[in-house]
Amino acid sequence: MALRNVESRLERFFERGLSRPFKSALQPIEIGQRMVREMDLGRRVSNRGLMAPNNIKIWISEGDAQRFDGFQHALVEELTETARQHALGESYNFVGPVVVEMFVDDELAVGTMKVKASFVGGQSEPRIVVSDGSTYPVGSTPVVVGRSGECQIVISETSVSRRHAEFWWTGEGVAVRDLQSTNGTLVNGHRVTAVSLSPHDVVEIGGQTLRIELA
Asked: In this prediction, what percent of the chain has a pLDDT beyond 90?
């Protein structure tokens, strides 16, 4: 399932404008598959659960780099999001923000690559990820969700109150609080008043699901 998700993400990128390569050329899907394999091979067990490498360096040939010219930044962004999605699907945690970098190695032949995945600690800004794909950072100011246009996250559904719920940074993680909404806020299927969240919790507000990413 995880590899199929990788292929789906990178196939969408591939179809957006990258010309179809010669048979021997490196394809984005191959890079994504190799990247998540290195994450899997590098995972470790800790008191926080399964930890995956968060710093991924990729080396490609000069010929492949020329093919990706104009698309390389977008490809790196897609790979970064693919790493986050893979970690979510496999219940991995990170020690710091996810960073994917791509370099050119003149000694590599077209169609080949090198990938190194390592653990690099650091602070990362948590963010809310909505089921429609939009993201919102969680900082010192609470992020309010509701039907009102004054909310930071607007859900235009009649089942959602004008000010339905809010997310805030506790100093140790992200929490959600229901703002006395009519239909309530659900976390993992249970109605809550206020609760701390983990990256694998699912928050339901109206017809939208929201989750937290810490890296």
From this structure: 56
